[in-house]
């Protein structure tokens, strides 16, 4: 399983970014997909997840601002991030889970003026 995350960058507070995670080496539709993040000096936390049937779950801190979605035809999961705040600054990781966890390499998101 390979997961390639992209779309990170520097954005001003209140701005938007869309992260993408392209998956290969798996039957994508069989996997629950998630985004995690790790901020400097903090533990990794779950940001959002989407199940095989499309059921979504969000961390309280991002609910209403972030949207996770998946395109099974493209083997890709997305994270649309709106109204970004400085506390959203972190490395964001893609995760694919079925019988075991699979991780991508991470993409840096920096929210700063």
Describe the structure.
The chain is mainly β. 0% of the residues lie in helices and 53% in strands. The protein is built from no helices and 11 strands. Strands 2, 4, 5, 6, 9, 10 and 11 form a 7-stranded mixed beta sheet that branches. A hairpin with a 6-residue loop joins strand 4 and strand 5. It is globular. It starts with a strand and ends with a strand. The mean pLDDT is 97.
How do you describe this structure in short?
The protein is an all-beta fold. Helix content is 0%, strand content 53%.
Based on CA atoms alone, the radius of gyration comes out at 13 Å
Give the integer mean of the pLDDT values. Answer: 97
Structural class comes to: mainly beta
Helix count equals 0
How many strands appear in the DSSP assignment?
A: 11
- Describe the sheet with the most strands: 7 strands, mixed
Distance between the termini: 37 Å
Order of helices and strands: EEEEEEEEEEE
Indicate the percent of residues in helices. Answer: under 10%
Shape: globular
Strand content: over 45%
Low-confidence stretches: none
Tags for this model:
globular; seven-stranded mixed β-sheet; mainly beta; 113 residues
Secondary structure: elements and pairs:
Blueprint: E1 2-6, E2 9-11, E3 17-24, E4 32-38, E5 45-50, E6 56-58, E7 66-71, E8 76-81, E9 90-97, E10 101-103, E11 107-111
């Amino acid at each position: 399983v390979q997961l390639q995350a992209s779309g990170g960058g520097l954005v001003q507070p209140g701005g938007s970014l869309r992260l993408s995670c392209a998956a290969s080496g798996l039957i994508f539709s069989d996997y629950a997909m998630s985004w995690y993040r790790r901020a400097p000096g903090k533990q990794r936390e779950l940001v959002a997840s989407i199940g095989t049937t499309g059921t979504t779950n969000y961390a309280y801190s991002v609910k209403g601002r972030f949207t996770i979605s998946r395109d099974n035809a493209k083997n890709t999961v997305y994270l649309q991030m709106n109204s970004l705040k400085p506390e959203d600054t972190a490395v964001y990781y893609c995760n694919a889970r079925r019988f075991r966890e699979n991780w991508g390499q991470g993409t840096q998101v920096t929210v700063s003026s």
